Structures are given as structure tokens and as C-alpha cells.
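Bumping with the actual sequence this time:
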Amino acid sequence: MTEESLSRMRIAEILEGLSTDGLHWSNNEYDTKRYQRIQELARTLGAVPIEPLGRIPVAPVTPKIGVDGAVTNQNGEILLVCRRDTGLWAMPGGAVEIGERPTIAVAREVLEETGIIIKPIHIVGVYDNWMDRLELAHHLYHIVVAGQPIGGEIKPQASEVLEVQWFASDRMPDPARFHPGHHARVIHALNGVMGYLD
């Protein structure tokens, strides 16, 4: 979806969604007031009645959506990142932005984290992160998208990624060195799974 194709109502919905997330994560009164103001303006833009702010839910009430790129090259190797926050290996990926298509999101996330430009091909599966977490975590549905590299060069995103590397199926890190859920998803991708549902 391009910015040009967005109606005023859709822009208002996106802004209201972003402000709702902002209110959820805000940790000071100044940011809270700013996000409340954005929410008011979004409702004005979309011609939606402005309800008292006390009645607006400030916490997401459904799972968020994430995308992971199962990117394989012509040698059958898969692209993995070593995450800075955990020191564990994972497919490159992240949250889908409000108003963003999953194919655009996965291409953006892979490029941001690895420097590799990809062409999304098909969905490997949709995975529920609560099924593979032992500790409390945000509830996320991960859409794993298979893709092929079409350009770029490896350049780890310094703020989030320690290392980026191509791995052959017989030379991958030990399963214990993978971020929760990612080893099984990588195996699915390498085995050509399509349309898997948790």
C-alpha cells in the first residue's frame, strides 16, 4: 500500500493505532499528553467522534504481528542474524508497522538488519510465539516468509545485530543457540514447508 493510496480515514486509523501503542509504552506525562493529542487529531482527521480519553484502551488487546525472513541463496544456505539482545541466532525480522503489508515489512526488516535486498516468494507458515516461550513475552504471531536475495551486501544493523551469516543446513549453530522458536522454523523453511499453521 502506497502513501498515495491511503484515504484520510485510513491515515486516521494508522495514527490512532500508533498513538495507542505510544500511550501503552509511554513512561512520562509529557509523552502521554503528546500521544493523547495525536489520538485526538487522528479522530478529527477521520471524522470519528472523540470519546473521553479515559475510555480509550491504551494496551493492545490482540496479538501483534511480526515477520521473519527465511532467505535462502542459490547454494541452499539460509541467512541468519545473531541478535544483540540475546546473543542467539534467528532469522532476520521484526514487527509489521501499522498500514504495512507483510511482504513489504519482511523485505524492509531483512534489509535493515542484514543489508540484503530480497524478493519475498511464499509463506512458510504462521507461528505463535507463546507456544515456544518459557518466560513472559509479548504475544506475537510470526509470519515466516521465504525469500531470495536479489542484491545488497551483508551489513549488520549495529543497534540490533551482532553478526550476519549464511549457513548451510549441515553447518548451522547448535539448536540451543537459537532464539526461541527459530530453529524449528528454519528447519521448516529449509525443508520447503509452505502454509504451516501453529
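The C-alpha cells above came from a reply further down the thread. The chain has two domains: 3-55, 64-197.
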